[in-house]
Amino acid sequence: VSTQSTGSSGINAEYGLSDHGGMDEEKGAQLYRVDPAGFFCGFRACSAGTKQTESNNYLEKKIKKNSMMSEAEVVQTAIAALSHVLAVDFKPSEIEIGIVSDSNPVFRKLNEKEIDEQLNILAERD
Q1: Which value, in Å, is the radius of gyration of the alpha carbons in the chain?
Q2: Are 75 and 97 in contact (CB under 8 A)?
Q3: What is the separation of C-alpha 65 from the centre of its chain, rounded to a whole number of angstroms?
Q4: Three-class SS of residue 74?
């Protein structure tokens, strides 16, 4: 859940965006963003935070090029988006990655070894 503030006449009111991911038996993995008014929208990939616009643009370009990615490619694309937008080379202990996929519909976090493997693949690719 990401919270942001609006500024108007000296009043800062917080509002929250909520991202929900899960599995649909018919459609597979699904990702939705819900705003406080109840508006929701489905995404193939999305980000939240300070540089979410830049990150979402990066993800949109990458997904348009390759819409059928493997689980490893999805993880690598997510890491590459963060690295590109924040201009940081990550260490495995600096990021957390959670996955829900068609092949494994239970949410799980990657451990540092798995993240390190993906970072090494990205480093070799660049």
Answers
A1: 16
A2: yes
A3: 17
A4: helix
Residue in the block written with tokens 């993995």: 29
Contact 64, 43 (CB under 8 A): no
d(CA 123, CA 100): 24
Give the CA angle between residues 75, 24, 107 to the nearest 5°. 45
Return the structure tokens found at 126.
């660049």
| Structure tokens that stand for 107 in this block | 């949410």
Give the Cα separation of 104 and 10 in Å (integer). Answer: 48
Q: pLDDT (tens digit, 0 to 9) for every residue of the chain, 126 residues total?
A: 444 444 444 444 445 668 777 777 888 778 888 888 888 888 888 888 889 899 999 999 998 888 788 889 999 999 999 999 999 999 999 999 988 887 887 889 999 999 999 999 999 987
Question: Going by C-beta distance under 8 Å and a sequence separation of 6 or more, which residues neighbour residue 14?
Answer: 3, 4, 5
pTM for the full predicted model: 0.75
Q: In angstroms, how far apart are the furthest CA atoms of the chain?
A: 51
